[in-house]
Write a structure and sequence with these properties.
The chain contains 4 helices and 17 strands. The chain is mainly β and 248 residues long. The protein has one domain. A hairpin with an 8-residue loop joins β2 and β3. It is globular, with a radius of gyration of 18 Å.
């Protein structure tokens, strides 16, 4: 890769020379970030990653096909717990899968029986271990709201985080972001607990490990604006998941 300096609206991005096996370090006047990749040993899928400050995030939505059962009102019930938008594999390939919060937290203990969140789902509060792996690859975990907040603070606050984290293409009606840090957030839409799919191309949401009562958890909401919102969603609805790397 050739060295070069590219001037964007209010910052410059410096690409340092690298090989295929070494990460690309990028610097702007606010925060350094490093692009890389990781492979999920469970299914061989490779994901882009980005290190922003002290945090390393997946730069793509998780696409691990979890097979488990959802916990509801004290009983386990068989359920399809993760989906491709409109059940189209091509959407999973681009946007990753949509998960219920119970699955994101691995409430059935399919990934790990030691995760501290067995029976953690709709109708029940739980106290998972921290960091909490959930269905993330080994060495990674479901981010808490405080970890999202730390990310937003590092990149200049929520008021501009939407624009900075969204991808430069894929959003409807000129709502694309500038992907200033390689986070590449796509409008994956979501799935209502009644089975309806909404929002592909228009918005996206990411689960956190933080609960908002027995029936809801906190999500990050991205749409067409410059800012983003943190809100609550029913634990039984389908949203995307970005994993964050454990501190070594």
């Amino acid at each position: 890769m050739k060295n070069g300096v590219f001037l964007l609206a209010f910052w410059c991005v410096l690409f340092t020379a690298c090989s295929e096996d070494s990460p690309t370090e990028v610097v702007n006047p606010v925060v350094e970030f490093t692009l890389g990749s990781m492979t999920d040993s469970r299914d061989g899928q490779t994901y882009k990653t980005v290190t922003i400050g002290s945090q390393t995030w997946m730069a793509e939505n998780l696409n691990f096909a979890y097979t488990g059962v959802a916990f509801y009102n004290g009983a386990y019930a068989s359920d399809s717990t993760s989906w491709c938008y409109y059940n189209a594999k091509s959407n999973c390939d681009i946007y990753g899968r949509l998960y219920t919060w119970s699955v994101a937290m691995d409430s059935a203990g399919i990934v790990s029986q030691k995760n501290g969140a067995v029976a953690c789902g709709v109708g029940s509060m739980c106290k998972p271990n921290s960091p909490h792996r959930g269905i993330c690859p080994e060495g990674w975990h479901v981010p808490t709201q405080s970890e999202f907040d730390a990310l937003y603070k590092m990149i200049g606050g929520k008021s501009t985080a939407g624009t900075k984290l969204k991808s430069i293409s894929g959003w409807d009606e000129e709502k694309n972001g500038i992907d200033a840090f390689g986070f590449g957030l796509l409008p994956a839409g979501f799935r209502y607990d009644g089975g309806q799919y909404m929002g592909l191309g228009e918005n996206g949401s990411l689960w956190s490990a933080s609960e908002y009562g027995a029936n809801a958890a906190i999500i990050q909401l991205f749409s067409g604006g410059e800012s983003l919102d943190s809100g609550m969603s029913s634990k039984s609805e389908g949203s995307s998941l970005r994993c964050v790397k454990d501190n070594e």
